[in-house]
Specification:
426 residues, mainly beta, Immunoglobulin-like, L,D-transpeptidase catalytic domain-like, six-stranded mixed sheet, four-stranded antiparallel sheet, 3 helices, 26 strands, elongated, signal, LD_TPept_cat_dom, transferase, cell shape, acyltransferase
């Protein structure tokens, strides 16, 4: 098994759809697939607040009270394009309507957070533009309060982070597909709570979830307590355009995607028996003999997901430090599980020992016929759990969001997570 490294280049302003590097068991290469996303995470559920671009209008004839205080303050300059609108009602109360217009009269769409803390524009504000916010609310005494503010956004900054979202719009994934956000350079720890508040995930049917940060802030995963329900729609928005960070950089752009979760297809591999059991829709449908990594190059124990599929490719491990692990081999039906080079793949050369002995360089070897059978049925995001090997899966070596308990996972959130997971922000 080769060393574990991640060398994918990050791109700031563009949405990349590059294929993942595929160089074989023990490789240490990676190329990212970057796309976009749209909705909540990280905020605890609170009573629904009815507000938006055309939110509830105050009751006709209601008594008028003192003006409420709008943020950003009137006359504010150089505000980030990630700015949200909030208001303080004298004596307390609830905002009922926010209207935001740009110079020239263009109206900005948006939604009030579920907890009522602020109103979030549905797309980034424009750089160097004047906006006017008019906010209406009802006080605890039943009086109507209104206030307005005119502010200007900052010019486009020169120093931005790169970001990526591993989710393709309109695609269908397996039940263990995490939402994976990536940043270059990583998000400083002191900024992660503010960034996480702008990383929105919504699921239909609703399933609470949480974010988990790793890699010194270069990656964050979002998942539910259990695998996604088959048929779920996941809508993601990483609303990071213009968000200021403590390292002097700003978020580069918003990324959005809506994807589907398909049927349940779960693979389990037990090193003790040298067999893979396959469950479709929760029912055991096939048992396959396997050969895992030999003692010098063991397979990783843990829950991984299929990240990439190649019907035919070449594994090239000539950069491995150990001459015994250097080879160039044509491989059929390769399914990547880790960045470090572990795959499920066809291995006709080991069919004689599959089910009895481990001889691979860390991959899950199956027969040519079984590799084809699996390849024709799996989706990106399908889970495989390997148990009983000499090596534990390293967090971040692949999409490892499911290789820890839910209680461990939520410890990686930058915001408090209610029992059972956070509800959407909207």
């Amino acid at each position: 098994m080769g060393r574990f490294a991640r060398t994918g280049a990050m791109v700031g302003a563009l949405v990349l759809t590059a294929s993942l590097a595929l160089t074989g068991c023990g490789d240490d290469q990676k190329k990212a697939e970057f796309v976009g996303g749209n909705q909540p995470a990280g905020a605890s559920a609170a009573p629904e607040t009815t507000a938006g671009p055309t939110g509830s209008t105050p009751t006709a004839g209601a008594a008028a009270g003192p003006a409420l205080q709008v943020s950003p303050a009137d006359g504010a300059q150089k505000r980030p394009v990630s700015t949200e609108i909030s208001a303080k009602i004298p004596g307390g109360g609830k905002v009922s309507e926010v209207v935001l217009t740009a110079a020239g009269g263009d109206k900005v769409e948006g939604l009030m957070r579920r907890d009522g803390s602020s109103w979030v524009p549905s797309s980034p504000l424009k750089y160097g533009t004047r906006y006017t916010a008019t906010v209406t609310g009802t006080g605890t005494d039943g009086q109507t309060h209104q206030g307005s503010s005119t502010f200007t956004t900052m010019a486009k900054p020169k120093s931005m982070i790169g970001s990526g979202l591993y989710l393709f719009d309109g695609k269908t994934y397996g039940v263990a597909m995490p939402v994976v956000a990536e940043f270059s350079p990583g998000i400083p720890e002191k900024d992660r709570a503010a960034v996480q508040k702008r990383m929105f995930v919504r699921t239909d049917p609703p399933q609470p979830g949480a974010w988990h940060w790793l890699y010194n802030g270069t990656q964050a995963y979002y998942r539910a307590p259990e695998y996604w329900q088959p048929g779920t729609t996941i809508t993601v928005r990483l609303a990071l355009a213009g968000i200021p960070l403590s390292n002097g950089r700003y978020g580069n752009l918003d990324r959005t995607a809506t994807a589907k979760i398909g049927r349940s297809f779960v693979m389990k591999v037990d090193n003790a028996t040298k067999k893979m059991t396959v469950f479709e829709g929760g029912v055991l449908t096939r048992t396959l003999p396997v050969s895992l990594g030999k003692k010098s190059t063991p397979s990783s124990s843990g829950t991984m997901v299929v990240m990439e599929k190649k019907e035919s490719t070449v594994f090239d491990t000539r950069d491995e430090p150990d001459p015994d692990n250097q080879y160039v081999t044509k491989i059929d039906f390769a399914q990547r599980l880790t960045w470090g080079g572990e795959y499920i793949h066809s291995a006709p050369w080991s069919e004689g020992v599959q089910g009895r002995r481990n001889v691979s360089h860390g991959c899950v070897n199956v027969s040519a016929a079984n590799a084809k059978w699996l390849f024709e049925r799996t989706l990106i995001g399908d889970p495989i759990t390997v148990t009983g090997t000499e090596r534990k899966l390293v967090p971040g070596n692949g999409w490892t969001a499911w290789s820890m308990s839910w209680s461990e996972f939520v410890k990686g959130s930058a915001l408090p997570v209610p029992d059972g997971g956070a509800e959407p922000a909207f």
